[in-house]
Design brief:
alpha/beta; 17% strand; Rossmann fold; eight-stranded parallel beta sheet; single chain; 41% helix; 632 residues; 3 domains
């Protein structure tokens, strides 16, 4: 798998995109990066980069393409606009002349503000025929309204709405950093529902931050007589420091406010501190990791704050996951999803109130109260699992691998059970609606030892081959097993009449292993180690039986597996089979089987059909080719 990551910010700047690239490469994925010259947050290109740009041509052995841009400067609106537009224009030109002939599976956009960086990725996808992944970290254009840059009823805002909708429509996978993002993006258009995926951020590793300053942490920044409340990270318009400053003023005698970070509004804090003689406001700037840890350890609580607004209530700031990693109680001047998490899990207190008097009362009560240490630690550990980097990256890589597998695949089939060869390992499964539905959802893994037989209407529909249906019970009746196979293992359900049928038909030893109700993890310890002269019949529903078969393939040296589902029950008469007269009628057998376990099978049928429609809509069946193993 090969991925191009497009991000205006990249190493030696520190953003989570660096971690993402590192994790992708650790999973064996080839990655290249399209970015610009590092100048965040100071606004000037890093000196170490200017002195030796060759040093920054590779990251974790990944090639980096850098395009020029107008630097951020002092972060004024006009300068930032030029900064964003210059990167967009330069990346478009560079992509056309240098990257359009590349062969990428995915172009991945790291979509911090502004989201228009994704236009370069979409442009490049057209030439490289790649799929586009967008990691949405700010909700556009809502953030423009919440920051009072452009209001909802203005022409510019409505224009951005159309641009954002266009970007989403040209994206194959939309990664949402919060569940609220996922919900809001899905509400824009029904066509976005299937491609939105929850993909939260993870704790930062401040030790990787470059360009941070050393600090004398033996200074008097920590108060011994007051509560110490620590804020870390970016100091910008979104962080609602107007409200924070009001609280600083009314808690002079009780709370020591420590701010470790930089940003556009840092100078405002410096000015307010001087004008109002705010001795209880300590401005430390951007710190090295070791220095920051000193203040974290000495603080009574951590502060997270965001302005009220649709985009801010929907977001989960990356700072929140980092705070969880520090395992300190959190005071949130914040609404929406983060407020709900803090209060629900009882890891602190969060409010979106703007009433200074009430906030002061709530804050003093919060700092004075002690949390139950054991309960607090359990809740923090639970949340850290949810936001764990390796866990979420592993899910993403598996998800991308499954989608890649839909690009082009060859299915080997046989329609004569008597010609099945037993000298090699194999997994054999029925190609029908349930199979297609599970395949569309990435639940069935195809490899060189995976074979199918044509079990129904959908084989003809997808393969365009005029081959008659071979029901599972007929396949089983026609099957002959050579003498060298001594034992047959049945994993799953097996009735008494089914066992008698198998013994009489095959004259082999039948070993039944009843699997418990559940998923693969519940089955693993019950699965025997198979020998070369043994075969296995799985009698589980699809895709569960294919998942178990795939697990056996990966773990065992010898395997000859038939995914028979309910075929044994029908072959032995435990379930009365469809009368032969109706076999050629489309959907007749499906309807007939609903008389047994009606509720469960009806639900499975509806789910399979829905998954099939999803796969058809996404085009997952278009690149399947079929080979008859008897003619191969």
């Amino acid at each position: 798998m090969k991925i191009l990551v497009v991000s205006q910010y990249f190493w030696p700047e520190y953003f989570r995109v660096n971690d993402l690239v590192e994790e992708l490469t650790n999973n064996g994925i080839e990655v290249e990066i399209l970015t610009s010259y590092p100048n965040y947050p100071g606004g000037k290109v890093f000196k170490e980069f200017r002195d030796n740009p060759k040093k920054f041509k590779k990251f974790n052995n990944c090639k980096i393409y850098r395009v020029p841009q107008i630097s951020r400067g002092k972060g004024t609106l006009s300068r930032l606009t030029f900064n964003y537009m210059s990167f967009l224009i330069c990346s478009l030109f560079f992509s056309f002349f240098k990257l359009r002939k590349k062969n990428y599976d995915y172009v991945f956009t790291f979509a911090t503000s502004p989201i228009i960086v994704a236009l370069s990725s979409i442009f490049l996808c057209k030439f490289t025929k790649s799929k586009h992944i967008l990691w949405v970290l700010d909700l556009w254009p809502n953030v423009l309204n919440d920051l009072n840059i452009f209001k909802e009823n203005t022409f510019i805002y409505r224009l951005f709405e159309k641009i954002v909708k266009f970007i989403y429509s040209r994206t194959d996978i939309i990664l949402c950093q919060s569940l609220t993002y996922k919900k809001k993006i899905r509400n824009i258009s029904k066509s976005f529902i299937d491609k939105t995926v929850y993909f939260p951020s993870w704790p930062e590793l401040p030790s990787k931050i470059k360009n941070s300053s050393s600090h004398d942490y033996k200074s008097e920044a920590i108060s011994k007589k007051k509560f110490n409340l620590l804020f870390t990270g970016n100091i910008g318009d979104a962080q609602n420091f107007g409200l924070v400053l009001e609280l600083v003023k009314v808690t002079k005698d009780r709370i020591n406010w420590i701010v470790a970070g930089e940003g556009r509004r840092f100078s405002v804090l410096q000015n307010e501190k001087k004008v109002h003689s705010l001795d209880n406001l300590k401005l430390l700037g951007l710190l090295k990791f070791d220095d920051l840890q000193y203040y974290v350890n000495k603080s009574d609580a951590l502060l997270i704050s965001l302005k009220p607004g649709q985009s801010f209530d929907a977001t989960i700031p990356g700072k929140f996951q980092t705070y969880l990693n520090y395992k300190k109680k959190i005071f949130g001047l914040i609404g929406g999803e983060v407020k709900d998490i803090i209060n629900k899990y009882k890891i602190g207190f969060a409010t979106n109130s703007q009433d200074i008097s009430k906030l002061k009362t709530d804050l003093m009560r919060f700092l004075s109260d002690d949390l139950d240490k054991k309960e607090f630690e359990n809740k923090i550990n639970t949340l850290n699992k949810i936001f764990n980097k390796q866990r979420n990256m592993s899910k993403l890589v598996n998800y991308l691998s499954k989608i890649i597998s839909f690009k082009k695949i060859n299915l080997k089939f046989l329609n004569d059970p008597k010609k099945l060869f037993f000298k090699q390992n194999f997994v054999l499964s029925a190609f029908n609606l349930a199979f297609l539905g599970a395949y569309a959802k990435g639940q069935i893994e195809i490899n060189k030892n995976f074979f199918i037989w044509p079990d129904g209407y959908y084989f003809k529909k997808i393969s365009k081959l005029h081959i008659d249906k071979l029901p599972g019970r007929e396949f089983l009746n026609q099957l002959t097993i050579p003498e060298e196979i001594k034992d047959i293992y049945i994993l799953g359900n097996l009735s008494k009449s089914g066992k008698i049928y198998l013994e009489e038909k095959f004259k082999k030893k039948i070993n039944h292993v009843q699997l418990p109700y559940g998923e693969l993890d519940d089955f693993k310890k019950f699965i025997p180690i198979f020998k070369e002269n043994e075969i296995c019949f799985l009698t589980l529903p699809t895709p569960k039986q294919e998942i178990v078969a795939n697990y056996i393939q990966k773990k065992q040296k010898f395997y000859k597996i038939f995914c028979f589902g309910a075929a044994i029950n029908m072959a032995c008469g435990f379930e009365r089979p469809l009368p032969k007269y109706f076999e050629k009628f489309f959907f007749a057998e499906t309807i007939w089987r609903l008389q047994f376990e009606t509720k469960r099978r009806t639900l499975r049928l509806l789910q399979s059909f829905n998954n099939y429609l999803y796969g058809k809509r996404k085009g997952y069946f278009n690149n399947i080719t079929f080979t008859n193993i008897h003619e191969d």
